[in-house]
Structures are given as structure tokens and as C-alpha cells.
Amino acid sequence: MAERFLRPAGDYGPCVITQPQPSPAQPSSAQPTGEGTRSERPGVTELRLSAFAGHRSAAFPLGPVTLLAGSSGSGKSTALRAYEALARLGGGAALGEVFPDPVACVPERARPDAQRRRGFRIGCTADGPEGPVRLDIAVQAEPELRIVGERLTSDGRILLETALRDPSRPVVQGAWHTAGSAPVTRGPLPDDRLGTALLPLRVAGRTEGQRRVLAAAEQTVVALRSVFVCDPRPEPMRAAVRLGAGRLLRDCGNLAEVLWRTRTECGRRHAQLVAAAHAGCAGPVADVLAQRLDGGRLRALLDRGDGVRTPLGMLGDGELRYLGLALVLMTGPGVLEVDPVGEVPAALQSLTVLADGFDHALDARQAGELARLAVRMGARGHIRLVGAVSDASWAAGVAGLTVVDLDACRR
Questions:
Q1: For the chain, which end, N or C, has fewer CB atoms within 10 Å of the first or last residue's CB respectively?
Q2: 331 forms bridges with which residues in the sheet?
Q3: Residue 246's pLDDT band (boundaries 50, 70, 90)?
């Protein structure tokens, strides 16, 4: 079944991509880099949905800042869901946790095989110090959920390959590159976990081939794991909150709590947030702060600079979503509710923000300001963004973006 699921490189349809030219003063790392300029921070540079929900033979290039644009039903949310699923698998999550409703991921018209099995295929490419590394996985959704095939490749060489040999056992047969006295090492791997994430526990690294396998696997896992799914919700952002750990939640509902912490911890970033708020909110903004109320609760305010302070509860939905996304882009794993790769220095990691409905409730000015902010943060290497938008026409003047037209991809 794995051979039917896993396709060779290049078996994907074209997409229409718009990549505005970056300004000369700030080159975009979304452009191909030479061997001497390869980023030390691993990042996902392509998402492949070979057969996943409404997508077939689709490959989406991802730059430091990428917008997936398309009409309702074009598959924007599906693509982000697949990215998040890969990230969770890379972090070691079990298959059932990642896909609680796996049948919904099977293409609608997919026919079962002779054993009544149906499934889906997803994959990605992670670029970094080891060069481009491809990961492709085949998942059986029916009659039971399991990974039935996985392939990790680099420079055309298969570094790891798994296949389901005995359906009665909860394992797949794995074979990884050795380049020692034996060309490959074989062994069983669980069928509910990503084998690539388990390789550091199984490969000793004694031979050059084993070290290559480990480096490729670690690059892929580091590129995938650091993900923050963000969807600011205006209603909880308007409410007062209690002081807690100070880590921003995915709905940004505890924004006041995070402002209470970050306003004094990093003056430079806070000044940037104030400047962003001034650019995206109606009226003047001299400061963004949190105020302690009776009972130990906090509420966020905009200081207008003339003695007037506007509670965030009085702002519109677009302004609140704008502030939440701006705060996310300006912070990192230390502030956001994410699980970074603890064994890898922060200087060698990038945090990828996944924002479905990135432009929801925003006007063109606000969306453009956020996109330019994302490009500036992305140029530093510590933040990447994949956002879904219904219409990216407002992004035409923003340098450094990768825009993927999903409507064109489906034609």
C-alpha cells in the first residue's frame, strides 16, 4: 500500500505563484540561496498535499512570509491544517491525536483498494544546513488509522523508508541509510508515530551515512516543530484577565496579561508594537499598556497621548485582530504558548506562525501593515508566517511576500 501512496519527486501539478521583488535594502530569504548563503535556521520551504481532502498533486512553495490566497472552498484552511499536522507529528504526537477524524482527510472520490483501505498523503521539504530534505508520508484512514509508508530523501538518496508488511502487527518495516558494512539498517517502527522523529533514538551515528541520516532527520524535525497557530478572537481580548504565566494563547485572549509582562521586559520591541498600533488603529496611539483592576484582573488600554486611555473593549474587531497578530509577530517562543525544540539553541530555530483568516476583519491598510511587519521580522530569521487570505490584491505593493493562488492551482 505504501508504494501506491508515495510518489516520486516531481509528480506534482504546477501552481501560480506571485513573488513581488524585495526592496534592494532588504533582500528576501524566500529567494533561492546559493551553497554559501544557506540559512542556518531550518525552515519548511514546500508543502505537498498529494492526496489530502480536496487537494490532489498540489505543491505549495513557502517563503519566510507566505500568503495562501483563494476563494471559499479553495483549500486554504485544509493546507494550514496539513502543515499543523506535520508539525505535531514532527514533535512526536501520536497519529490519533493529530487526526481525530482521519476519514475527513481522505479525498472525497478516493476509491478503496481490494482490502477496503483508503488514506491520504502529505509531505514537505525542509531546507537548512543539510540542504533540501523531503519528507513524504502515507496514512491509512480506513479500516484503521496507521502510517503505512514514510520516505525521507536528500539529494535523491533515500535516507529512511518504511512500509507496512504485516497488517496484523502495529508496526512498519523501516530501512535507513547506513553506508557502512551494510548499505542499510532495517528494523520495526511503530505505525502511529513519525519514523523521522524517532530516528535519533534508533541511529547511533557511527558511520558517515548514519550521521547524514541523523542530520537530515533533525533538520526536518526542527523545521517542523516550532509552530504557533494563531487566530485572535476579539471577544476574549475585550475581557479583563487574571495575571498568569504571561504566555500568549492562540486566541490572544490574554493579551492584557502578556502586555503587563512584556512592556517592561523589552523596551525596544514594545516601542515597535506601539508604532504598529499607531499605524493600524484609528486615532493617535502613544502607548499600549495593561492596567490592574480591583480583584487582581488586568485590562489592556491604548494611551492616546492626551490624557485619554481607550480600553481595548471599545475597539473594533479588526483593530483587535490587528493588535493580536502584531504582538505575535514581534515576540517569540518565550512569550507565545508553544513548545520549542529545547535541545537546539534558539539562534538556530525559526518559529512559524500559522494564521488562518489572516486578513479577516482587517482593511487593506491594516493587512498591508501586518504583512510588512511580518517581512521585517522574517528577514531576521526568527519568525516565519503562513497566512490564509481570501484576496491578496492588497499585498501587491508589499515586497518580500510569496503569494500562492490556490484558485489557479485547482484549475
A1: C
A2: none
A3: confident
